[in-house]
From TrEMBL, chain B:
InterPro entries: 2Fe-2S_ferredoxin-like_sf, 2Fe-2S_ferredoxin-type, 2Fe2S_fd_BS, 4Fe4S_Fe-S-bd, 4Fe4S_Fe_S_CS, Beta-grasp_dom_sf, Helical_ferredxn, SDH/FRD_Iron-Sulfur. Pfam families: Fer2_3 (PF13085), Fer4_7 (PF12838). GO terms for molecular function: 2 iron, 2 sulfur cluster binding; electron transfer activity; metal ion binding. It comes from Embleya scabrispora. This is Succinate dehydrogenase.
């Protein structure tokens, strides 16, 4: 890539012709972040925020899209404050949002174990885990709020694990040497989500929240430069309608399903944030995708999704492959001396608990060397034999029983007697819509929370911090910052017949018709699978310039095929799951190009973004802080996208090479 | 393996609906039951026919969206397993399998295998929560909870709200679901405070949503993918009676 000079145009060429152009626009900055000592910034922001008297809050409705940890907690809390909240989710009940599937736990700097944990240490671990590509202010706030989250959830009746004295139990997770992860067996996400859903349900009963389930957001209404509503489709009746409010909150999760196979739920999609991006919200760090090291390997071409085995398993499970390539003996027949416990060998200080990006790449490397296990050689063992011998099967069952049962159901193998086979898979997207410290996007009045924003995880998310971020945003940050925004209003009345509103709704209607009218011969799933395979191969665990260029040439072709050969059976007038799917795949086909372009322009390796050209002699990720210590925030245009850089400042942690050895 | 599926097709709530047979000649033992439907749907789409509508999302047994009655049993023949986690290795080559939606008065059919389970949400809205506003919760260690209570509360809390209990119950009762939630919250000190008003409100919402009465047949626990024990219903009934006795 050429010099990054403002206003210049960057073009790459391949045999396929010209593609992948972008221009560089003005630098951006986070103007909402307070100055001063790091530990005082959130307190300052809170004290500086304007308030609204309770009688006026009733006149300031807010739309919240998505009902996962971030969305449900935001809806519950904003409604408690007195704002009428209108909530949307595509599932048949808000309780089914994908946060429910999180297994392992939620971090908090409580130091209940006396093992030296503190807010400062959680902050440092998270910044380091994210490979120094997250903002200090945001991450520190997250660490501060973590302790309040646990208190709040316990008050709601979330049944966290407890020890015999009746106090809360904790365990450790990848990337940390302290035991700060609170958990509810292997179902922490479920219990936290039900807590937030129940808090929201209480507000539904009180008349403060209206839930529209089985309803999908298909566009954002922007009037006079402010987000003022959403256009949605009722998935049961097919009716397209517009809902208006004083502000809009997107809590719609991540876009990992761009890869087709991922650990996301099947319905997870990027449409809400992608439509907002097309309306002017910048999209930050789209190439930062976390690959999780412990997923159940693919079993065949029919595979529809990948199932994660919680990272907490690495507390007791030992990861290994045979020393020799092509060793097809049963795992039990391979003596200890002929096993390579490669994580323990390569990273003795953290062992099996190295962060996810490190563990994933190590697994890939041993498989690339021909030492992988299972069908196709795409797997490594996660072995509990030593733990069962040390702790007894009963204790292991108590800790991980439901995960073992799940593994057995999917693979037909019993992990108490045979080691699990695991392989890395797409798990979490750290990129998302750009937001400032107040969680406001570049469209005033559009707030983005949880996985849908880019803000707190840098280039790699530490385990057990996604749940923390979703709840911090919804329960504690938005009630301060969104309220501050609303206090500056009112922003003028918006009517259903305003030209912008009418045009936005018409655009949605037209797009639905267009999807139905293609009348080709291939399903949306067909295109999704092909896109996913391309993304996994060219923009997956390891990327290089040649592969990314190939993908950037292929994606526009695939998109053209989609719009020429798509077939959506049925009509737009009722429940039509093929139509839902087609709309989401159409957006993935656009987002995927931006992901590849972002990956191509970032000529360094960091976290989940590993460029083959940029590695240390030992094969570790080589960051380039002089050139790339910035957030890449992309602006949508009808032509090439515009790159806006937000430089990152590290005043409180020292930029250092990540070392887990 | 080759399988024949007899699937309930119903265009909408007003349509009468009926079983339609489809052959899937190229199923694999490693497929999940929903992946089998994916394969069928791809074929239907290619032939210009409308695919079979069914609810599903996480496909790892936790979201509670999937909901098929397979050969007469909600979530199929394997115990303690959701449909998405049911794999074809538990079926025989050449087998013919009936696939139907949840059937209950409180769960009207939306289309094909998709039903409306919003009645379950209304039960939670009535009282399935702890009144704990955000912002000033006490320190989490302020109230120790005996491990046995915490574990029992957790067992009850694992309910995924799929509605299989309702589909299996001859009365279409949602007592297992309702009782699981009330037991989870009632076993914890935080939730005990409002247990009387909670159980009273929840049982009324249960009846209003058109769920039937419980006669302790136990079909619900037999099909529950999370193994919620029948004991939660006894406990709930005692709580409801206690609340009535105390006049709340």
């Amino acid at each position: 890539m050429t010099e990054h000079t403002e206003g210049s145009e960057h073009t790459e060429h391949t045999g396929h012709g010209e593609y992948a152009r972008y221009t560089v626009g003005a630098e951006i900055a986070d103007h909402a972040a307070p100055e001063g000592p790091l530990a005082e910034r959130w307190e300052r922001r809170r004290l500086g925020a304007r308030l609204i008297n309770p009688a006026n809050r009733r006149r300031l409705p807010v739309i919240v899209v998505g009902t996962g940890l971030a969305g449900a907690s935001a809806a519950a809390t904003l409604a408690e404050l007195g704002h009428p909240v209108v909530s949307f989710c595509y599932q048949d009940s808000p309780r089914r949002a994908h946060s429910i599937a999180a297994q392992g736990g939620i971090n908090a700097a409580k130091n209940y174990r006396g093992d030296g944990d503190s807010v400062a240490r959680l902050f440092k671990d998270t910044i380091k885990g994210g490979d120094f590509r997250a903002r200090e202010s945001n991450v520190h706030r997250l660490a501060e709020l973590s302790t309040q989250i646990i208190d709040q959830c316990v008050a709601q009746g979330v049944p966290f694990a407890r020890d015999y004295g009746g106090l809360l139990d904790t365990r450790s997770f990848g990337g940390a040497q302290v035991s700060r992860t609170f958990y509810a067996r292997g179902q922490t996400g479920q219990q936290l989500l039900l807590g937030a859903y129940q808090a929201m349900s209480r507000q539904v009963a009180a008349g403060n929240v209206t839930v529209h389930a089985r309803t999908e957001m298909l566009d954002l209404v922007v009037v006079d430069g402010r987000a003022r509503g959403v256009v949605v489709r009722d998935l049961v009746t097919g009716e397209v309608s517009t809902h208006l409010a004083e502000a809009v909150v997107l809590a719609t999760g991540g876009y990992g399903n761009a890869y087709f196979l991922s650990t996301n739920a099947m319905g997870c999609n990027a449409s809400a944030i992608w439509r907002a991006h097309r309306r002017g919200a910048l999209f930050a760090n789209p190439c930062f995708t976390q690959i999780h090291p412990t997923c159940i390997p693919v079993s065949g071409a029919h595979q529809s999704k990948l199932t994660l085995m919680s990272e907490s398993l690495r507390n007791d499970g030992r990861v290994w492959v045979p020393v020799a390539g092509g060793d097809t003996r049963a795992p039990g027949a391979i003596p200890a001396a002929e096993r390579d416990y490669f994580l323990e060998r390569m990273y003795p200080a953290f062992g099996n608990l190295v962060p996810r990006d490190i563990a994933s790449r190590a697994a890939k490397r041993v498989c690339d060397e021909g030492r992988g296990v299972g069908p196709g050689g795409l797997g490594v063992y996660l072995d509990f034999a030593d733990a069962i011998e040390r702790l007894g099967a009963a204790t292991v069952e108590e800790k991980y029983g439901n995960l073992f049962a799940m593994y057995e159901r999917i693979t037909g193998e019993d992990p108490y007697t045979v080691p699990m086979r695991i392989f890395p898979a797409v798990h979490y997207t750290m990129g998302g819509l750009w937001v400032d410290y107040d969680l406001q996007s570049t469209i005033p009045g559009l707030f983005v929370v949880g996985e849908a924003n880019f803000s707190d995880h840098g280039a790699n998310r530490l385990g057990a911090s996604a749940l923390m971020q979703g709840l911090a945003d919804g329960y504690f940050v938005l009630p301060t910052t969104l309220t501050h925004y609303l206090a500056a209003g009112p922003f003028g009345a918006v009517d259903a017949d305003d030209p912008e509103v009418v045009a936005t709704e018409q655009g949605v209607q037209d797009r639905v018709k267009r999807l139905l009218a293609v009348d080709g011969d291939l399903s949306a799933d067909h295109f999704h699978r092909e896109l996913g395979l391309l993304m996994w191969e060219k923009c997956g665990m390891e990327r290089d310039a040649a592969g990314l260029r190939e993908a950037l040439a292929r994606i526009p072709e695939l998109r053209a095929e989609f719009w020429a050969r798509l077939r959506v059976p049925g009509s737009g007038a009722g429940l039509n799951q093929s139509l839902e799917k087609a709309g989401r795949v159409a957006d993935f086909l656009e987002l995927a190009e931006l992901m590849c372009l972002d990956a191509l322009h970032r000529e360094e390796s960091c976290g989940g973004h590993f460029r083959a050209e940029h590695q240390s002699p030992g094969g570790e990720a080589a960051r380039d802080d002089d050139s790339f210590a910035y957030v890449a925030a992309w602006e949508y245009t009808d032509g090439p996208p515009v790159l806006h850089r937000e430089p990152l400042a590290f005043d409180n942690v020292t930029l250092a090479t990540r070392n887990y050895a | 393996m080759k399988l024949t599926l007899r699937i309930w097709r119903q265009k909408g709530p007003e349509d009468r609906g009926g079983m339609v047979a489809y052959d899937v000649p190229d199923a694999s033992a490693d497929m999940s039951f929903l992946e089998l439907l994916d394969v069928l749907n791809e074929r239907l789409t290619a032939s210009g026919e409308e695919p079979v509508a069914f609810d599903h999302d996480c496909r790892e047994g936790i979201c509670g969206a999937c909901s098929l009655v397979i050969d007469g049993v909600p979530h199929g023949p394997q115990k303690a397993t959701t449909t998405c986690q049911l794999h074809l290795r538990h079926f025989r080559d050449g087998q013919s399998i009936d696939v139907e939606p949840w059937r209950a008065a409180a769960f009207p059919v939306v289309k094909d295998l998709v039903v409306d389970r919003s009645g379950l949400d209304r039960i939670i809205e009535a009282g399935g929560y702890v009144t704990a506003p955000t912002g000033a919760a006490p320190e989490a260690h302020a109230t120790p909870i005996p491990k046995a209570d915490a574990d029992a509360a957790f067992e009850a809390a694992t309910c995924i709200g799929c509605g299989a209990c309702v589909a299996a119950c001859p009365n279409g009762s949602a007592m297992l679901f309702t009782a699981a939630k009330a037991t989870h919250l009632g076993l914890l000190p935080q939730g005990k405070v409002e247990q009387d008003t909670r159980v009273d409100a929840m049982i009324h919402a249960h009846d209003e949503a058109d769920f039937g009465g419980c006669t302790n047949t136990g079909e619900c626990t037999a099909v529950c993918p999370k193994g919620i024990p029948l004991g939660v219903i006894g406990r709930f009934n005692a709580d409801v009676l206690g609340a009535a006795w105390r006049g709340r």
